[in-house]
Automatic annotation (TrEMBL), chains A, B:
NCBIfam families: PRK00197.1, proA. The keyword DNA damage does not apply. It catalyses: L-glutamate 5-semialdehyde + phosphate + NADP(+) = L-glutamyl 5-phosphate + NADPH + H(+). One of its GO terms (molecular function) is NADP binding. SUPFAM superfamilies: ALDH-like. The keyword Cytoplasm applies. One of its GO terms (cellular component) is cytoplasm. Keywords: Amino-acid biosynthesis, Coiled coil, Cytoplasm, NADP, Oxidoreductase, Proline biosynthesis. It comes from the Bacteria. This is Gamma-glutamyl phosphate reductase. One of its GO terms (biological process) is L-proline biosynthetic process. Pfam families: Aldedh. The lineage of its organism: Bacteria, Bacillati, Bacillota, Bacilli, Bacillales.
Length: 421, 421
């Protein structure tokens, strides 16, 4: 099988096929779409050993290239992970299909009937990194919401993704969904990939999912609208009147439950009075969890083993058991720091003072703001939305966890009997 | 008064001032915002002669530069137009303020309270052309929805816009809204202006309003999300089973009522059987309205005085009393033509066959699709939304006429008592 041997012309024709498939896909019933997802899930389980065999090729190349453990873990599939991919697909069949929902319906005085309905976006361009499960998760959500999808996964997962897409196609031929609705861009050539970013006429939206540099590249080079996802430089402000027990439990949960995900805590901003009272307990609890502290001068003065935080510590996600800590005077300073360094994902305050909490919740600009809870709840599953295609950190179209409705748009349908203006 | 003497640094500090003002503006009540709009309306009426005097300077320069009549008309203000600008502002005070509306509210099983509320976008960057009224209309809608605004109008209207903004500022000092919430970029230097397009940290959305080239420049150069507006290459398909009286009345209305607006008809696609039966009547009615026909070979064969349509005729808006006509075989060909040349604004079918109408409405991809009515209804006022900041021709965030809700986003507010995951 040839890998990565693509030209701009091939990509253009793939995008065109997706656009054509999107049209017929947009007319299918929920039942037809659910049956197709079910069939994909079945086929993935049946072909588990083929998928694992192809995944091994990626893992071998990955080891040769000395990717780090975290990266290799994201790349690796197993029987259990394949089962979980299939299970997720079956869960998507249970979600409400927003396509065809009537958003609003009314008559003008002249009798013109206006109906605003939810319709699929059309063609989704999904640009992602190592995780092969995204190939199937994104496909499931796209198809369920009546969209075609053009997949461009990381080149490190090329064998795994090709295998998964061939299994998806094998399933789709048995269903009402045309196989052309799922296109896979099999190249490691960046220049070719970037052609996708300006294919307005064929692709309706680009969703980059991965690290900051991937997302910034897409935003910079795309002329197609982009749904930015995922970068979460998450802060928590510990107010003077924060309950110590809540602080310890929430900080430990937000930092250590899954440090590599985007809703994990990255920077603690601590009120100086609270810090004076509770620093020993806090430091000892963080130490128990093997958290490495990067502190400002006040912190390093009290905890000489802490590393000195630099500009990078405030600006970047760690995605590891590292935590930046800054001691500040009040909630206004917290809001200002978040304005400068936040990525508009999830931000929290811990306090027993409702006025200060209110000010923080109102003034902090983010997809999700928390009072006295862990930021780990910014997640489609945890909030009850079902599976998500990403967590939007931008303000247009969709903010926070994006489920099926984020993959639709609206259409005004006006029916008359000769109305003119 | 110095005009157009700006640097990148000045623009950056203006954007920064807007961002700061947006924070306090987002906390104001509807009452405070309405009072401010009322005050601006009063002040504009009071300063009408000053505004007209400054507008005359732009008109003089425009005549020297030999701008065409349509352009000069868009640029010109009059007592009546100034009154109408003030009236529009007062109408905006009557619209529902979406800020603070609860979109959804629920509790998780663990007691965490989740509230999804509507909040302002923050700072809107408005890029527009000759019409000075956009300066006030856009400001009114932005402020009412709690947003700061950075205005960059066409350089041909520089004196008029500066006058209007100074009057707006004069009004705002008497209100709760900081004057910094309305920033005007007083430059004719494109390179300086384009700096705005990448000021992520300060501007939340760019709204270009004007011709295709303005919009394409913004889309291409911006890294800030763009709400595309306005370009409407509007088609109407006359089906075999179209009622002749409806066709004549709807076509004449859609083409001639206001040919320069974006929901005006540009291309007629006519079923060949209908055309054979009704061509004489159609041509004679179009002639009565002084419409210039650009036809395909079939049309020019039957109407030698018609111009021969070229690729440009199918692809571009005329915005004048010109009309492209193509004779086709069926609704599928109509849909295909619209897929190739449409701008996803407004598209219509005239037919008495409900099946064909249904197919057209379902398969055509546009903000508004019509059956047996004029496309002139794609308009915030006509549909009952109130004033609009533009008509979105894209699929993300807002589609069709964009009123106040399009200038807001959502924010998840989560309140707990120590919940962790």
């Amino acid at each position: 099988m040839s890998i990565g041997n693509l030209t701009k012309k091939t990509i253009l024709s793939q995008a065109n096929e997706a656009k054509k498939a999107a049209k017929s896909l947009s007319l299918l019933s929920s039942k037809e779409k659910n049956e197709a997802l079910q069939k994909i899930a079945d086929e993935i389980e049946k072909e588990a050993s083929f998928i694992l065999q192809e995944n091994k090729k990626d893992l071998k190349i990955g080891r040769e290239r000395h990717y780090d453990d975290a990266f290799m873990d994201r790349l690796a599939l197993s029987e259990a992970r394949i089962l979980s991919i299939a299970t997720s697909l079956r869960e998507v069949t249970q979600l409400h299909d927003p396509v065809g929902d009537i958003i609003e319906e009314w008559n003008l005085d002249n009798g013109l009937h206006v109906k605003n309905i939810q319709v699929p976006l059309g063609v989704i361009g999904m640009i992602y990194e190592a995780r092969p499960n995204v190939t199937v998760d994104a496909t499931g959500l796209a198809l369920k919401s009546g969209n075609a999808i053009v997949l461009k996964g990381g080149s490190s997962a090329l064998y795994s993704n090709k295998a998964l897409v061939s299994v998806i196609h094998q399933a789709l031929v048995q269903t009402s969904i045309p196989t052309e609705a799922v296109q896979f861009i099999a190249t490691a050539d960046r220049e070719i990939t970037e052609q996708l970013f300006t294919m307005h006429h064929y692709i309706d939206v680009l969703i980059p999912r991965g690290g900051r540099s991937l997302i910034e590249t897409v935003v910079k080079k795309a002329t197609i609208p982009v749904l930015e996802t995922g970068v979460g430089n998450v802060h928590m402000y510990i107010d003077e009147h924060a309950d110590v027990k809540k602080v310890i439990s929430i900080v430990v949960n937000a930092k250590t439950d899954r440090p590599a995900v985007c809703n994990a805590l990255e920077t603690l901003l601590i009120n100086k009075t609270w810090f004076q009272r509770n620093k020993e307990l806090l430091f000892s609890e963080l130490k128990k969890c093997n958290i490495t502290i990067h502190g400002d001068q006040v912190v390093t003065h009290h905890l000489p083993e802490a590393l000195t935080a630099t500009e990078t510590d405030w600006a970047e996600e760690y995605l590891s058991l590292d935590l930046a800590i800054k001691i500040i005077g009040n909630v206004e300073e917290a809001i200002e720091h978040i304005d400068s360094y936040g990525t508009k994902h999830s931000e929290a305050i811990i306090t027993e003072d409702p006025q200060v909490a209110k000010q923080f919740m109102q003034e902090v600009d983010a997809a999700a703001v928390y009072h006295n809870a862990s930021t780990r709840f910014t997640d489609g599953g945890a909030l009850g939305f079902g599976a998500e295609i990403g967590i939007s950190t931008q303000k247009l179209h969709a903010r926070g966890p994006m489920g099926l409705p984020a993959l639709t748009t609206s259409k005004l349908c006006l029916s008359g009997n000769g109305q003119i203006r």
